[in-house]
Design goal:
With about 400 residues, the chain is an alpha+beta fold. It has a single domain, classed as Cytochrome p450. It is built from 17 helices and ten strands. The protein is globular. The N and C termini lie far apart (about 55 Å).
Length: about 400
């Protein structure tokens, strides 16, 4: 289908950002692929197509391994954006095989399930301390008091970022991630470039220190990781650490506040969870599905593909709508219903294929730890005031979440 997208799909409209589900339903009704002129993209709203295309090697996060910008019909990024693109383009999220395969294999040697398991006592203790402070204060902002400090501290602890340096991580990350929104503004780009320069310079100094005096941290492990003579270059190392730091907390922060806001709006489900903490694992998965922290993931079409009779040509960009896919009634029974006991839940909030989130086990650990601590220590937690949505569409979250204990 090549007709214009439904007018309700408007990523810059506050009403759409507040609740995109009606627009997603309209898109799914229109077809399996819809051309969207404002962003020069093809929207893909159905779960089956999104899941399949995440695994389809005719699409890629990058095209530079096969084509120049000119060969692909694309304009090179402005030279003043170079620090951001150098940082971004050397991370495994924006690389394709063989470089992606090599880097992910090296990262996996250091970032193992056992590494995450060893963090579990630290994660639970930190979550308990943060919730304890919230309880002593009689409430606060769940975003700044728990959702942000927990994953930032955990990923910084894992990587070996000194505690005195951690305050800069979240602002750097937020500025860099602004470039992942649709049609970012010049000011957004300037902030991303500045953060890329500062973050890279900081990490180069830290990496040099770890080379001279290795520790038990992940940065030391990444420096030491090798496979058949392959090692990470310094730029790949810097970009990988930034990716792990950014991805290691951005989604978890938003999933935490989105999830608790959903719980407050569904008191029956919250009551069931408070009565039965064994629901926590399925609750985490359902909340990731219900209000997906990453709404859209982009792919370049490297070779022509056909979707439902429509040819999407090489050089095009597809927007895989995770938020829509996670509410597709063809896959999820009564998708608009929050069901914390939902057993059949193949959500794609962590992506799929070769770019499946390497930090998914850590994110699940953090979300379960903070939820368990709040259920145990703050059983009367309630919403203090209606929160405001961040204006962002791609990375969906709240500007704050005021809570109180009654």
């Amino acid at each position: 289908m090549t007709a214009a997208a439904d007018p309700a799909f408007d990523p810059w409209d506050p009403a759409f950002v507040a609740d995109p589900r009606p627009a997603y339903a309209a898109l799914r009704a229109r077809g399996r692929v819809i051309r969207y002129e404002p962003t020069d993209q093809w929207l893909v709203p159905h779960h089956a197509d999104v899941s399949a295309l995440l695994r389809d090697r005719r699409l890629g996060r990058s095209y530079r391994h096969r084509f120049t910008h000119e060969e692909f019909g694309r304009t090179p990024p402005p030279p003043e954006h170079e620090p951001f693109h150098t940082l971004n383009d050397h991370g495994m999220l924006d690389l394709e095989p063989p470089d992606h395969t090599r880097i992910r294999r090296l990262v996996s040697k250091a970032f193992t399930p056992r590494t995450v398991e060893r963090l579990a006592p630290y994660v639970h203790a930190l979550a308990d301390d943060l919730v304890g402070a919230l309880v002593r204060d009689g409430g606060g902002d769940l975003l700044t008091d728990l959702a942000e400090p927990l994953p930032v501290a955990v990923i910084a602890e894992l990587l070996g970022i000194p505690e005195a340096d951690r305050a800069s991580l979240r602002p750097w990350s937020a500025d860099i991630c602004g470039m992942y929104e649709l049609n970012p503004s010049p000011e957004t780009a300037r902030r991303a470039v500045r953060a890329s320069e500062e973050f890279s310079a900081y990490l180069r100094e830290l990496i040099a220190a770890r080379r001279a005096d290795p520790g038990e941290d992940l940065i030391s492990g990444l420096i030491a990781a090798h496979d058949e003579g392959d090692r990470l270059t310094e730029q790949e190392l810097v970009s990988t650490v930034v990716l792990l730091l950014n991805a290691g907390h951005e989604a978890t922060v938003n999933a935490t506040v989105n999830g608790w806001y959903a719980l407050f709006r569904h008191p029956g489900q919250l009551a069931a969870l408070r009565a039965d903490h064994s629901l926590v694992p399925t609750a985490v998965e359902e909340l990731l599905r219900y209000d997906t922290p990453l709404q859209l993931f982009e792919r370049w079409v490297l070779d022509d593909i056909e979707i439902d009779g429509t040819t999407v040509p090489r050089g095009a960009e597809v927007a895989l709508l995770f938020g829509s896919a996670n509410h597709d009634p063809a896959v999820f029974a009564d998708p608009a219903r929050l069901d914390l006991a939902r057993a059949d839940n193949p959500h794609i909030s962590f992506s799929a294929g070769i770019h499946y989130c390497v930090g998914a086990p850590l994110a699940r650990l953090e979300l379960a730890a903070s939820m368990t601590a709040l259920l145990r220590r703050a059983p009367t937690l309630s919403l203090a005031a209606e929160p405001r949505r961040r204006p962002n569409f791609v990375m969906r979250g709240l500007e704050g979440l005021g809570v109180e204990l009654r």
